[in-house]
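Peroxisomal membrane protein PMP27
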Amino acid sequence: MVAGVLIYHPSVAHYLKFVATTVGRDKLLRTLQYFSRFYAWYLFRTNGTPGEIAPFEAIKKQFGLARKLMRVGKNVEHFKAAAVAADSKSLDPIIKYCAIGRQLGYAGYLTLDTATVLDAAGIRKSEGTKRLQKEAYRCWMFGLLFSTMSGVYSLYNLRQQAATIDKKDGEGVVASKKIEKERAAINLQLLSDLCDLTVPTSAIGLTSFDDGLVGLAGTVSSLIGVYSQWKKTA
């Protein structure tokens, strides 16, 4: 009886919908990957033994490879999104160009990242893999920067809209609540983008963040991704 109640509980159905999506599984793996990166660093800094550190290093490496394989072919999605944004006649010009830049950055990242799969999987080693991976990170960084600029500009627009609303009016109250909801979503995405920026900027040498900070920031952005995807599958 109890088992039946649990099996047919709405949360179980929601969970199954969540893990049925590639994005949902990727965000869960990403959370574990970056937390392991942080925790391996923490154990090393607190004089943990090699035996204690090894499992988390393995999770970081193997889950990273699994996610790399799951990303193969996803570049097409972002090239299409860039084309759709470029053809849009209704988007604000700044939002439009930021969207194109973001999608092309992500597409470039995924294209170059795919080119490193055979080397990462140990199937065929290549001397150019490190250079390709570095350029992939550079593309990801540009995509994130465009996303950040779009978020900041969107917040500015919302602030301008909020200033013209009369909150004493019924319609004004509804509009104000809508703006607050949009602002919360944008702020969450901005936090995710800023956390993610620690990864490519440290990988290409623009910053000197250690594995602890990168792992922690990656964990935060991954949890935001889990939360967002969970809401989408509700």
